[in-house]
């Protein structure tokens, strides 16, 4: 069984949001998670991504008021190849192992 979640999070900078995401990942054994409109980028985004409990991640940074895209996955469950990330989008090839 596998779990994949795609979520329009509309901001991910608060401690409560990070804790909620991590709890959901653990409770529902999510192996692949995509978050849209994260609204933070750079080192702050890297810091939040490291706390979420997935061993691999890819991000497209926010640009102005346009939120970014974060894709995270458990490499024991999923094989993910990032094919490209043009202009606030991301193209990935995903295989469940």
3D structure, described in words:
By secondary structure, the chain is α+β, with helices and mostly antiparallel strands. It has helices at 15-27, 42-50, and strands at 4-8, 32-36, 56-60, 69-73, 78-84, 91-96. β5 (78-84) and β6 form a beta hairpin. The radius of gyration is 13 Å and the shape is globular. The N and C termini lie close together (11 Å). The model has no long low-confidence stretch (mean pLDDT 89).
| Average predicted confidence as pLDDT | 89
Strand content: 25-35%
Counting DSSP H or I runs of 4 or more residues, the number of helices is 2
Q: Tell me the distance between the termini.
A: 11 Å
Number of strands: 6
User: What is the radius of gyration?
Assistant: 13 Å
C-alpha geometry = globular
Strand arrangement, largest sheet?
Answer: 1-2-4-3
Largest sheet: 4 strands, mixed
Category by helix and strand content: alpha+beta
Helix content: 10-25%
Q: Give the uncertain stretches in residue-range form.
A: none
What series of H and E elements makes up the topology? EHEHEEEE
A few lines on this structure:
This protein is of the alpha+beta class and 97 residues long. It is 23% helix and 34% strand.
List the helices and strands and how they pair.
Layout: E1 4-8, H1 15-27, E2 32-36, H2 42-50, E3 56-60, E4 69-73, E5 78-84, E6 91-96
Parallel strand pairs: 1-2
Antiparallel strand pairs: 2-4, 3-4, 5-6
């Amino acid at each position: 069984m596998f779990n994949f979640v795609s979520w329009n999070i509309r901001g991910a900078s608060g401690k409560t949001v990070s804790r909620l995401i991590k709890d959901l990942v653990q409770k529902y054994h999510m192996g692949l998670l995509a978050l849209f409109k994260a609204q933070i980028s750079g080192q702050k985004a890297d810091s939040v991504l490291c706390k979420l409990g997935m061993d691999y991640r890819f991000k497209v940074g926010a640009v102005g008021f346009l939120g970014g895209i974060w894709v995270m996955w458990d490499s024991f469950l999923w094989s993910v190849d990032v094919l490209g990330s043009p202009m606030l989008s991301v193209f990935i090839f995903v295989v469940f192992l």
